[in-house]
Amino acid sequence: ARKGAKAGGARGKGDNSPIKAIALDPNTGTLYVADSSQGSVTAYDGATLTVRDVLKQAQSPMALQWDDRSSRLLVLDVQSKDAGSLLAYAPTSKSWSTLHTFDSTFGDRPPRRLATLEHRILLQVEQLVAIDGDGAPAWSVDGDPEIAALIPIPDGRVAVLCRDGSAVGETDGANASVLIFNREGERLARILVGFEAQLAAVDTRNH
To answer: pTM for the whole thing?
Structure first.
């Protein structure tokens, strides 16, 4: 595999690497690697790293997520800043389906991140959006947070890391915030994180 792969489809600003995301099928050990420059997703044997298959359905795959409940690979295909699709690949039948084509329903831009939460798919668009497994919108979170990460929790909640407390209005001196939502999009908790304050409190004396 090439250097520069990023787990979970995360993409940083200024990231010019063609390798945009990786995902693992834990049942078969297949490792999927998205290459946006080639418009391909390569399936590797996770043990030997030999190529099992090269999937060419997506024009510019930017994020991957293995959906264990449905035994399928979710592929975020972003053709431009205003156009994209969420695709699903079923390895057993080697078939593709389009779950959603992005338009004004989800704002002006395709998602930048995706994750799974039980039977739903989470997308970071201009806001946090959850859709059902067939692509139908389920719920969305108001506002325009600067989302840095989506972390599903096994009990059906999701943790959303937001830069600079942007999703909560007043930051109270925090550098970031963590919001906890349940499976229906209801906010359960808000945690403010002040990295500078924590670093300033560290005892630097030799022990």
So the answer is: 0.68
